Amino acid sequence: xxxxxxxxxxxxxxxxxxxxxxxxxxxxxxxxxxxxxxxxxxxxxxxxxxxxxxxxxxxxxxxxxxxxxxxxxxxxxxxxxxxxxxxxxxxxxxxxxxxxxxxxxxxxxxxxxxxxxxxxxxxxxxxxxxxxxxxxxxxxxxxxxxxxxxxxxxxxxxxxxxxxxxxxxxxxxxxxxxxxxxxxx
Length: 185
Hints:
This protein is an alpha/beta fold. It has helices at residues 3-11, 27-41, 55-64, 79-82, 100-117, 137-148, 169-177; strands at 16-21, 46-50, 72-76, 92-94, 122-125, 158-163, 180-184. Helix 1 runs parallel beside helix 2 (27-41) and helix 6 packs parallel to helix 7 (169-177). It is globular.
């Protein structure tokens, strides 16, 4: 069974924390498939926490595939350091940088309440391993904990991490320790 088919089956049963084990070469395709499924097929609202690629890149790919983004908020930790152009939008929140001191404090103080208060249906993290050069494992763990607890009180809320277990097994284990259910290919 493909990771996408397994995700559809697992996620249709309600919310929780999910970790999709996807090879690096298939990361973007899987991310777009997950978002297409959640936005088009399930008609959910949610958040993409962009830590690997600028949100404009994902937005363009979704647009090309005809996936509506009106129910999607981007939390973007990389655009400000990437040099990528962006158009200001009420559906885009930029972090100053992906470094622990900025990312974690900005998320907790500014963005977590906004995401949780909106009772969004999901939050998808595009590739947790991309934080490795910028954050220590304990800081990544605090971030995973904050993301994993966003949906408390909402049994349908999904927190989805798309990552390659073989490239950063220690980060994968962090997600599992915080209630992540494995979805692998």
